[in-house]
Amino acid sequence: MRELRMKDSGAVVTEAAYKDHYPRVSFAFDWEPLDADWIVPTAPPAAPAGLQAIRNGVEPAGSHWQQAWQLAPAPVPVSVSMLGLRLALIGAGHMATVNAALAEAGGTDGEQARAMFEFATSLRRDHPLVERVRQALRLEPAAMDVLFSEAASFE
Q: Is the dihedral of CA 3, 5, 11, 15 positive or negative?
């Protein structure tokens, strides 16, 4: 859907909303508005892990207006595949520490943690095993969120 920026107010409207504002006007196929400027679509910037590109209005670009973008924290996935989590841990160089921490965990809790890590197909961010892994790696919660986001990128 094409967008326009109104010259008088700076408001951004869709082409359909603009045409609806002038119900008695017949628009030619290649019409040009007198009271608005077309907004040139631009591709969002590439976002590193943990960030996402979101629209941030429009900005001037020479003689025209174009879509503006900003990078913002990406929402942390609620759940990731265990394969994705393992690949993210390997990529960050944490797998040996995680394996050692799981091997040292004793009792029923340790057995359940090892079984979960080996046989589960997915893992929720709020699962106690994720907190156990975070503590074993001595990561801040935000760093674990980034690791979880990287795990989701493998899916």
A: negative
Question: Among 73, 107, 134, which residue terminates a domain?
Answer: 73
pLDDT recorded at residue 74 = 82
**Where residue 24 falls among pLDDT bands split at 50, 70, 90?**
confident
- Count Cβ atoms within 10 A of the Cβ of residue 76 and give its class: 0-12 exposed, 13-18 middle, 19 or more buried: middle
29: Cα separation from own chain's centroid: 37
Q: Biggest alpha carbon distance in the chain? A: 78
Nearest to 131 by CA among 101, 154, 108: 101
Pair 63, 110 in one domain: no
Dist CA 146 CA 51 (whole Å): 9
Residue 131 lies in domain: 79-153
